[in-house]
Design a protein that fits this description.
The complex is a heterodimer of chains A (338) and B (111). By secondary structure, chain A is an alpha/beta fold. Chain A is built from 13 helices and ten strands. Classes of the chains: A alpha/beta (338), B mainly alpha (111).
């Protein structure tokens, strides 16, 4: 197992050092496996959420090319140990090659997860006006695992974070997914909670029970699991924290809540994250900070990736990593504490 | 010297500089009573604590338990209702004394 690297991000200068913190706990944090290939296929989104670490919005134009999609498919084919394709964005459905990517990955026998914002089904493509109401049926046909953000089970926190009217549209979209068989045990529909402010997420288990009860009773909506995630102090959320002069308070909260039991399950230890241009990162957060992964003395891209070499890389850490180790931990699948 | 400096909340343990064993017992009791799920959930306890914080007019407690409420999954509507419980109880505790006033009015042959 690799020793923790000292390649902290520039934002870590002079502040708390994540690498030193895990080393002080006697923990290693090198790659364990590459079980998931996560691809950020576009920064275009029909929404512009306050806490979006991607800075996605309707004005972004970045798209993963067909060449890059095909290279990702080749990697999935080569990597027997890669079980999952995790598609994210922006709204990944707004990439012109999205349907092809999903279909081909399924033909390879891979489990496909889509970070689906729910509203894109009703809003369609904000640049072209293309309708997207076929999405729930398409997901069901391809047995896609749907992972959808819903910051709260009522309107106030959801609309405050994701925009006016988002809660109502999200509920309508969830009902469409339920009608396709999602949330009833066979087709997986998981929701993502993240705090509507500068505070840590509640216990995933207790919140899941509340979400289940309220969504069922108030809206007749069913889902499988709730993932509680921490807001990452980067990009749009970092700007918001700095504008309100509470960035240092939030960082202190994350650092003070460091939990060594989350290190084993850090998502960066089990995945590779691919940017729209084919560059490879340890996670989606590093991708947004342009902290490209390196191995064998060179930066990694999908175009010349050697999976064995990538397993030997040193994961790049920064102060934002305290967001993944605070409290019960936070990853793409929610809490990570052992 | 400032009264009610928000930074003073973090200095609360310094009160244990003297009579430390009593302060240790207080913190243990406080954590047991408010910080763990029991017959009441941590969220329910946080909402009660937030209401008490308002009744006691303690700015440190209001800061601390606003955060605790959020971090246990409460929303502003629930928190505001909790404060209304405290406010209405305070109002009721005062108003019920009007019975005493009315008894005095009777005693004074004014009612």
């Amino acid at each position: 197992m690799n020793e923790p690297t000292q390649t902290e991000s520039p934002t870590g200068t002079g502040g708390p050092c994540f690498s030193r913190r895990i080393a002080r706990c006697g923990l290693g944090a090198g790659p364990l496996a590459i079980r998931t290939l996560q691809a950020n296929v576009t920064k275009l989104c029909n929404q512009a959420c306050v806490h979006c670490h991607v800075d996605a919005s309707p004005v972004r134009t970045e798209q993963m090319s067909l060449e890059c999609v095909n290279r990702c498919l080749e990697i999935l084919d080569e990597g027997d140990a890669i079980e999952n394709l995790d598609l994210t964005g922006g709204a990944p459905e707004l990439n012109p090659h999205f349907d092809y990517f999903v279909g081909e990955a399924r033909k390879l026998g891979k489990h496909v997860m889509v970070r689906h914002n729910l509203t894109v089904t009703l809003d369609g493509n904000p640049r072209t006006g293309e309708a997207k109401r076929y999405i729930p049926e398409f997901f069901a046909e391809n047995r896609v695992e749907v992972v959808s953000s819903l910051p709260y089970y009522s309107e106030y926190f959801t609309d405050r974070q994701r925009g006016k009217g988002v809660f109502e549209k999200s509920i309508e979209s969830l009902r469409m997914l339920n009608r396709e068989g999602y949330g009833a045990g066979e087709l997986e529909l998981n929701l993502v909670y993240n705090p509507a402010g500068a505070f840590l997420p509640p216990s995933q288990k207790s919140l899941e029970a509340d979400f289940r009860r309220r969504l069922e009773e108030d809206h007749g909506v069913r889902f499988d699991s709730l993932y509680a995630m921490t807001n990452m102090p980067i990009n749009r959320f970092e700007k918001e924290l700095r504008r309100k002069n509470i960035y240092d308070d939030y960082m202190e909260k994350l650092v003070n809540a460091f939990n060594p039991e989350t290190v084993e399950g850090l998502m960066c230890r089990n995945m590779l994250s691919v940017g729209h241009d084919g560059r490879i990162y340890d996670c989606d957060f590093n991708q947004m900070l342009e902290m490209q992964a390196r191995a064998g003395g060179k930066p990694l891209t999908v175009f010349d990736l050697d999976l064995g070499e990538a397993m030997g890389r040193e994961i790049r850490f920064g102060v934002h990593c305290f967001g993944c180790t605070a409290g019960a931990g936070s990853g793409c699948g929610g809490e990570t504490a052992a | 010297m400032d009264y009610y400096d928000p930074g003073d909340l973090a200095r609360f343990p310094e009160v244990g500089k003297f009579a430390k064993d009593l302060m240790d017992k207080f913190f243990e009791y406080h954590d047991s009573a408010t910080g763990r799920d029991g017959a009441l959930t941590r969220r329910e306890k946080a909402l009660i604590a937030l209401a008490v914080a308002h009744a006691e007019k303690c700015p440190y407690c209001i800061d601390a338990y606003t955060t605790r409420c959020l971090e246990t999954g409460a929303d502003p509507e629930q928190m505001t209702e909790a404060v209304h419980v405290a406010a209405s109880m305070s109002a009721g505790a005062r108003l019920v004394h009007a019975v005493q006033m009315q008894k005095a009015l009777v005693k004074n042959d004014a009612m």
